[in-house]
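Below is how a single chain appears once it has passed through the pipeline. First comes the sequence as given, then the structure the pipeline wrote out for it. We keep one example in the README because the format questions we get most often are answered faster by looking than by reading.
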Amino acid sequence: MRVSFLSENINKKISFVNHAVSNRSSLPVLLNLLLLAKKGKFFISATDLEIGIEINIPASIEEEGGITVPAKTFHELLGNIPKGKIVLYTKNNSLFFETDKIKTVFQTISPEEFPKIYDEKGDKIATIDSKTLESDLPKVVLAASQDSGRPALSGVLIKKEERGGDFLIVATDGYRLSLKKGWGGEKQVGKKDHGFLLVPARLIRELVSVKDWAKDIGVYSSAGNNQILFFLEDAVLAGRLIEAEFPNYEKIIPSDFSTRAIIEKEGFQKAVKTCSIFARESANIVKLSLEKGKIVISASAPSLGETSIEVDAVIEGEENEIAFNARYLLEFLASVGSEKIIFEMTGPLTPGVFKLDDDKDFLHIIMPIRIQG
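Resulting structure:
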């Protein structure tokens, strides 16, 4: 193998592919990147057997071939060299890395030992547009559990809606739930009827991380390999679908409410953040008291004291109060760009429902915390 390319063409994407490198593995090759020059393109791949990432970069291919190289060292070296031309070539099972002033030799492992990231693309399910990538996915995936011991809750459910051919996405960790209907742009349904897919939330988070340089993304499902694949313009993200039963999320969504509030997001977010200073010392609990024309956000800690902040709001229905984990509130508020938040509730022990004034197809639910007094 012999290739040459500009360092500025690889630096933006090498961090992305490194997200799939195994941190610890009994297979040494999983600590490596696969470098492959073929058919006029230069590919760099990584996998930890849960997810796989492949990127391709503009390069001059003088001789096709492949090799694997220690990922961490290769990444760090790239991050410490000036802009300019890099030449890579293999000789006697070693990889030579050269610039005008740098010469490095890497020990390698045969590319034949590197696992395939995917065998086939499968059926095209949909196209994720830039709005979905930048706005819709982040505010849904935040509700997914990061506990791999609860497989169904560590996924994002993608489900075909009964009407219109659109898709619904939903995630829950048992304490909160995010749901978005009618997501994405152009829809292209594959040959098979994929009613639903349970996608590892980790894959969705990786997609969100490339929103600055990714445009429309093709979504493919390979039933034979139980994989989902996301094809970017010059990258592929692959992972195995979760084989578990997703909770009946529809039962969690309240059908009615007795109190409704319309709140300016910015002021509400600042108030919750301020109260969270005290909440840290008392199980992270903040209380919301919905009164005429306002919401009072409060928190107290025996060792510190207490604080309360009034936020103007349009209140419809009964006066009410409810308590939440401050972190859940702040993570939700940080994920949405709407100027106004709509909050609905029935009582202090029933789920609180958050909606957006400018997106009727989205809702976020947070389970309340029981408080004394």
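Helices lie at 11-18, 71-78, 130-141, 201-209, 265-279, 326-335.

See the next section for the split statistics.
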